[in-house]
Amino acid sequence: EAQVTQNPRYLITVTGKKLTVTCSQNMNHEYMSWYRQDPGLGLRQIYYSMNVEVTDKGDVPEGYKVSRKEKRNFPLILESPSPNQTSLYFCASSLWSTSGAEAFFGQGTRLTVV
Amino acid sequence: AQSVTQLDSQVPVFEEAPVELRCNYSSSVSVYLFWYVQYPNQGLQLLLKYLSGSTLVESINGFEAEFNKSQTSFHLRKPSVHISDTAEYFCAVRGSGNTGKLIFGQGTTLQVKP
């Protein structure tokens, strides 16, 4: 089954404690990205990757890092989480970055930073 | 800059009634438009998309959307809703350039009442 898998689904952490949210896709997609979803704001892109070892900032990259060492994996790293990073996070992948390629989304990770 | 505006944050409707979820976008270039649906505690799923050609696009579960270039709109409609249609709906446009970014509206919560 074609899917994007995120882990964990739920996470509560304390300010400043480094964490990683994993994302893996099994569709051999080149393009992957991370979004955060906040009430009234929709989804906003954090980082994206065109291919292995190629990553770039989205609209709200502050406080986040990513890496793309393998095509299938695109982890999101919060080096020093803060309460304003409490949000619902989605990983997405698509075959291409342009045109009408459908984006496939993971189930989401609900992060709470206290 | 491109943007997407969903005009209603919540739309309550009775079962079997028709519904329209409104979406307006701003873009000076050709656009690719999408509607995604998010059921409770799940990720986003593609409902339908407009790439080119016929301005009326349909989904397999009875939803349709019409691309109106002059009004820069992409409203979503269904002639008769079911309880199972209760979800949050997001309108999105693929950003210009090659960042692959999806620009989302704020989301509309469709509440179908028995």
Cα(first) to Cα(last) distance of chain A is 36 Å
Structural class of chain B: mainly beta
Instruction: Tell me roughly what share of residues is in helical segments of chain A.
Output: under 10%
- Strand-and-helix sequence of chain B, N→C? EEEEEEEEEEEE
Q: How many DSSP-defined strands of chain A?
A: 11
**Structural class assignment of chain A:** mainly beta
Helix proportion of residues of chain B, in percent?
under 10%
Structure description:
The complex is a heterodimer of chains A (114) and B (114). Chain A has 114 residues and is mainly β. Chain A has strands spanning 4-7, 10-13, 19-25, 31-38, 42-51, 54-57, 65-66, 76-78, 87-94, 104-105, 109-113. By secondary structure, chain B is mainly beta. Helix content of chain B is 0%, strand content 53%. Chain B contains no helices and 12 strands. Chain B has strands at 3-6, 10-14, 19-21, 23-26, 33-38, 44-50, 56-58, 64-68, 73-78, 87-94, 102-104, 108-113. In chain B, strands 2, 5, 6, 10, 11 and 12 form a 6-stranded mixed β-sheet that branches. In chain B, strand 7 (56-58) and strand 8 (64-68) form a beta hairpin. The termini of chain B are far apart. The chains are: A mainly beta (114), B mainly beta (114).
Structure summary:
The complex is a heterodimer of chains A (114) and B (114). By secondary structure, chain A is mainly β.
Helices and strands in order, then pairings?
The complex is a heterodimer of chains A (114) and B (114).
Chain A: E1 4-7, E2 10-13, E3 19-25, E4 31-38, E5 42-51, E6 54-57, E7 65-66, E8 76-78, E9 87-94, E10 104-105, E11 109-113
Parallel strand pairs in A: 2-11
Antiparallel strand pairs in A: 1-3, 3-8, 4-5, 4-9, 5-6, 7-8, 9-10, 9-11
Chain B: E1 3-6, E2 10-14, E3 19-21, E4 23-26, E5 33-38, E6 44-50, E7 56-58, E8 64-68, E9 73-78, E10 87-94, E11 102-104, E12 108-113
Parallel strand pairs in B: 2-12
Antiparallel strand pairs in B: 1-4, 3-9, 5-6, 5-10, 7-8, 8-9, 10-11, 10-12
